[in-house]
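re: ur question from yesterday

yeah so i grabbed the chain u mentioned. its 345 aa long if i counted rite. heres the sequnce exactly as i have it in my notes:
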Amino acid sequence: MKKTLLSGLRYFIFAALAIFFVWLSVRGLDRGKWEQLKKAMDQAHYWLLIPVFALLLLSHWFRALRWRQLMEPMGYHPSRLNSFLAVMIGYFVNLGAPRLGEVVKCTILARYEKVPAQKLVGTIVAERAFDVICLLIVFGLTFVFQFNIVSTLVHTYVYPLFQNKDGQPAYHKVIILLSAFVVFFIALKIIFSRFGHINLVQKFKEILTGVWHGLISVRSLKNKPLFFVYTITIWLLYLLSTWCGFFAIDETSRLGLADALTVLAMGSVGMIVSPGGIGAYALLVMETVALYNIPKEPYGQALGWLLWFGQFLSFITFGVISFILLPRVNRVNKKKHETNPDYTG
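ran it thru and got these structure tokens back, copy pasting raw so excuse formatting
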């Protein structure tokens, strides 16, 4: 009963977050701006969603190959197709029930490939740990290649937080912030050492330990360079799909690959903070392209919602197809295996 209530509360919070970010992304629209947004969406080149779809699909294929590689040290070698279809179904489920998709894709692979689902949890943690590192690298590259944009953001939003009313540096605010960080880490250490027996603290420690084990698990891979090739390729395809999406709207078509890096960084944050990125992704993309002197309304909004819709539609389309294909593909493979015992699928 308690578990059901907690699960229900979690999904309620996710839904509330989605509604909140959607409201934030459209709150400034009056009747005239709605008409402008509608016109911008009507004039968009929707055929460009096809190459965006193709790039995203290819990135998911490489994600499946990377996931499959993480299972090899445990002695499991699931088929590439089953791994890919499980990944796509996981994405599809995540749209309606965030985080549940990871459980579902492990369960699916356990069913069709006889891989113990509980043993796949570590591979999921490893994937997420490296994705976090990749996102940090994307932010780092954004800082290098888009320094002017980053400095504008810092001057606009960060510097004022550490200035007094006269516009002079408020050093006491900096000292307070640094002191707060020191106190936080000291408090964290005390909590871990003195209250480690409490369930909540234990779970938090397990998460941190799991992330660390996920990061070091790559040491046991036979082909470590291939793992990093897969990871780089996944994020490069994300970048190319974002850049390709710029051309769907004439006013954003002048943005380049370096600009796509900034949009990818901020859009990725949007995908994390809101279920399926709804509302948050469009909002952050809108605010980001405004830094390039592109009007937020309607063109920034149009681009944000169009890029989000492309990803959302790809998850729906490929997810449904994967649900249909998975049992049929495995029935065929089972028949071939019965006919030829050496057949591996």
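noticed a couple things. Residues 7 and 16 are 14 Å apart (CA to CA). also The mean pLDDT is 79.
anyway ttyl
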